[in-house]
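Lab notebook, page 48
Experiment: co-folding of the full assembly
Goal: obtain a model of how the components sit together before planning crosslinking
Operator: M.T.
Materials (sequences as entered):
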Amino acid sequence: MMQEVLFTNCVEEAIERLCRDAKYDRCFVLCDSNTHESVLPRIASALVAEAEVITVAAGEESKNLDSLAYVWGELSLRGATRHSLLINVGGGMITDLGGMAAATFKRGIDFVNIPTTLLGAVDAAVGGKTGINFAGLKNEVGVFAQARMVVISTRFFDTLPREELLSGYAEMLKHGLIDSETHYNALLNYDITSPDADTLLPLLQYSVGIKQRIVEQDPQEKGLRKVLNLGHTVGHAIESHSHKHGRAVAHGYAVAWGLVCELLIAHRALSFPSAVIYDLARFVEQNYSAYAFTCDDYDELIALMRHDKKNVGEKINFSLIKKIGEMSLDNYIEPKEIEISLDFFRDLFHL
Ligand code: GLY
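Observation: model returned without errors.
Model output:
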């Protein structure tokens, strides 16, 4: 069954309907220190006003075992039962952490995700991947658990900084590459420098639909869903590299660069058309700039790619596309080939 994703600006109505129908005994809200201040007061629901609020510090650093234990502890202390509901209000950090806390507390309680960032709406909040970072690796520990409902309201995006919007937009570009030339070209032609909720909404709805259809067919990433990792094998390596070297970049930025790099790999392995790569590289350079690295970083980047959960043994497994809309899963790529693509990437971005 397709996960229920509701696009509405009446968030409170959606939550109240769910709670009325499902008869939860208690309602808990998980948020971070930023959303506690900026978003919770905007959800004028009696139910949310009465809910027990659990707050963790804002930032990716909170997506860890300590925060998970804290959420478990608060749920336990404040009397949550198996019939309680956890409402996760925030970006990907909150929906990943809260989803995992809910999926494991008393062997699993219901949860609702209310993403407050574009990245969360288009990716993290939808599809049932939950988890925390562990031992320096992103999403190293987690479980698959579908939110009972995802409620998306673009009204929370109006105060998002440009960097946050671009971060989410990179995942939309990924969905476009996986889906069709029509949708992908609509994304490349959209003026992301001056977005507004009305024009972004149809693109976002279509983009979320792409993910929903894939997840519905393969919720646990046994096959088809691996295509959603396009851009992420290199992207996660860049993201981890940036954190290790004290110049942290946003997830979506790393994905944007990862997409270019992995299309270069697809060009050599599967004859992916180079014209599409040039167009994407220009779009990425204009909007996301570049991630600077030299050939001295290759070994470290490739070592980080080896930690990817898709790998079997020493091989590095890439989810690629042969052309827009045509996926190719389980491509085992030699490190030498990855290095050549990193060389091309540096050429394209004049590094
Ligand atoms: N973020 C990729 C997925 O949900 O499978």
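Interpretation: Residues 168-348 form a domain with the Dehydroquinate synthase-like, alpha domain fold (CATH 1.20.1090.10).
Next step: discuss with group before ordering constructs.
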